[in-house]
Write a structure and sequence with these properties.
The structure is a single chain. With 146 residues, the protein is α+β, with helices and mostly antiparallel strands. It has one domain: Roll (Nuclear Transport Factor 2, Chain: A). It is built from 4 helices and 6 strands; from the N terminus they run ααββαββββα. Strands 2-1-6-5-4-3 form a 6-stranded mixed sheet, sandwiched between helices. A hairpin with a 2-residue loop joins strand 5 and strand 6. It is globular.
Amino acid sequence: MSQENVEVAREWYDVVNRWLESYWASPGQPLGETPGTDGVFDRMCQDAEWDWLFSPETFRGRDQLLRAAADFIDTVGEWRIEVEELIDGGRDRVLAILRVLARGRGSGAPVYQRVFSLITVRDGKIARIHDYTERAKALEAAGLSE
């Protein structure tokens, strides 16, 4: 089952990036009305949680997750996620090593952040994401070693 969880994570990031591309292609529309929104949330549990790197708050469910993404989009002029590696964490976990790429809305300056996301998969859907900035802490949380 764990390789299936890796594929769930890979597919989810692909869908998220297509959703973001759709949003940036037609700016001004509400993020929740962007084509692809349902595809993102169809791949998540209804009660999915995200301990997001860009906020101290834990976001739960579609409405809060959309609000978090919209708030971030208000500060950037472009945003996408590159998956560098997905590591099977056993049981129900996947560790995603990511590069978050954005461009400052006002300045146009490129922003790059390496993120280590520990993903919990339940019944073939994303149930929880916990972001880390340090690889060692993410590996520890996943029960993996260097």
